[in-house]
């Protein structure tokens, strides 16, 4: 049994599509099919059920996939640790934050403990540096309402690190003014059609979701304020005359600022977003950046 066979099997078990897997692995479909057939012959069992042109991982395949993935992850970790005996990454990694930085903070902390010679410079989406030096960023943290990231020139390789829900944050007095007697934390967005909203101003890699969500609910929002400043957003909502959409991960910060704020889960729209870490797919990527990329993939893989 060869590592290449395990790699092909693991990817095919994820895609469950021969053509997509072959394209992902940059090999031909016949070569992929032969590799899997040899693996099945060695194991003495079929790993996939074939129905017409489609394939599906069967019970044997699901069991083997679990051990194959563990094996590959163990080998990756062993390879990294051996290389670290001779190589200690150093230098600065430049990260553009177009989504809430808290989602990657723990990963960066653990990475810096393992590689103390590496430094990070992180810039928010409203930073002039980010706009002027976008082409010099090594990584970006972005969000998308779809499972696939927004395509960006040069940033051609991405993977999801988290998925979460958008919620509506509103002061109780504002909620009572426009939706008197509303109880609970699960309400339809359509009922908020007269409420003034605070949105985030569109920029280089950020598109405000307020209009999109309200359109899904059947109305055009009253966007009274647009800002890219998180502190301003926090303060304005807390004053009690405006509502805003926030990622659920931000709720504790708002609650600590004003404990009686209401956090509404919306029942009539799909308000989930996916957070992506992206990098440039280039032969010029530094070894330090490549080390962080591999580390981050393993870090978030084990937390999903």
Short characterization:
This protein is of the alpha/beta class and 304 residues long. Helix content is 42%, strand content 23%. The strands form three sheets. Strands 3, 4, 5, 6, 7, 10, 11 and 12 form an eight-stranded mixed β-sheet that branches.
- What is the count of DSSP helices, taking H or I runs of 4+ residues? 11
Q: How many domains is the backbone divided into? A: 3
Integer average pLDDT: 85
What is the assembly state of the chains in this entry? single chain
Report Rg: 23 Å
What does this molecule look like?
There is one protein chain. The chain has 304 residues and is an alpha/beta fold. It folds into three domains: 83 residues, Orthogonal Bundle (Arc Repressor Mutant, subunit A); 102 residues, Periplasmic binding protein-like II (D-Maltodextrin-Binding Protein, domain 2), CATH 3.40.190.10; 110 residues, 3-Layer(aba) Sandwich (D-Maltodextrin-Binding Protein, domain 2). Helices cover 42% and strands 23% of the residues. It contains eleven helices and twelve strands. The strands form three sheets. Strands 3, 4, 5, 6, 7, 10, 11 and 12 form an eight-stranded mixed sheet that branches. Strand 8, helix 8 and strand 9 form a beta-alpha-beta unit. Helix 1 packs across helix 3 and helix 2 packs across helix 3. The longest helix has 28 residues. The mean pLDDT is 85.
Overview features:
single chain, 304 residues, alpha/beta, Arc Repressor Mutant, subunit A, D-Maltodextrin-Binding Protein, domain 2, 3 domains, eight-stranded mixed beta sheet, two-stranded antiparallel ribbon, 11 helices, 12 strands, 42% helix, 23% strand, globular
């Amino acid at each position: 049994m060869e590592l290449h066979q395990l790699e092909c099997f693991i990817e095919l078990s994820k895609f469950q599509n021969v053509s997509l897997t072959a394209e992902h692995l940059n090999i031909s479909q016949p070569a992929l099919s032969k590799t899997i057939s040899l693996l099945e012959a060695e194991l003495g069992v079929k790993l996939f059920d074939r129905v017409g042109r489609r394939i599906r991982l069967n019970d044997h395949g699901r069991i083997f996939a679990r051990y194959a993935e563990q094996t590959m992850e163990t080998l990756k970790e062993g390879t990294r640790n051996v290389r670290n005996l001779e190589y200690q990454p150093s230098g600065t990694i430049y990260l553009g934050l177009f989504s809430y930085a808290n989602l990657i903070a723990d990963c960066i902390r653990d990475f810096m403990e393992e590689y103390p010679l590496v430094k990070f410079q992180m810039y928010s989406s409203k930073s002039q540096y980010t706009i002027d030096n976008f082409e010099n960023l090594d990584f970006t943290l972005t969000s998308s309402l779809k499972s696939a990231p927004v395509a960006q020139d040069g940033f051609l390789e991405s993977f999801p690190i988290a998925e979460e829900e958008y919620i509506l944050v509103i002061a109780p007095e504002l909620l009572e003014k426009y939706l008197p007697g509303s109880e609970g934390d699960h309400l339809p967005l359509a009922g908020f059609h007269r409420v003034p909203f605070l949105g985030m101003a569109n920029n280089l890699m950020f598109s405000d979701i307020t209009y999109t969500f309200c359109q899904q609910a059947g109305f055009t929002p009253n966007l009274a304020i647009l800002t890219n400043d998180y502190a301003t957003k926090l303060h304005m909502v807390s004053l009690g005359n405006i509502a805003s959409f926030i990622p659920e991960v931000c709720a504790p910060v708002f609650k600590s600022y004003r404990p009686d704020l209401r956090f509404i889960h919306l029942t009539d729209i799909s308000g989930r977003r996916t957070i992506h870490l992206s990098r440039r797919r280039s032969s010029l990527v530094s070894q330090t950046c490549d080390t962080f990329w591999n580390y981050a993939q393993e870090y978030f893989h084990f937390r999903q």
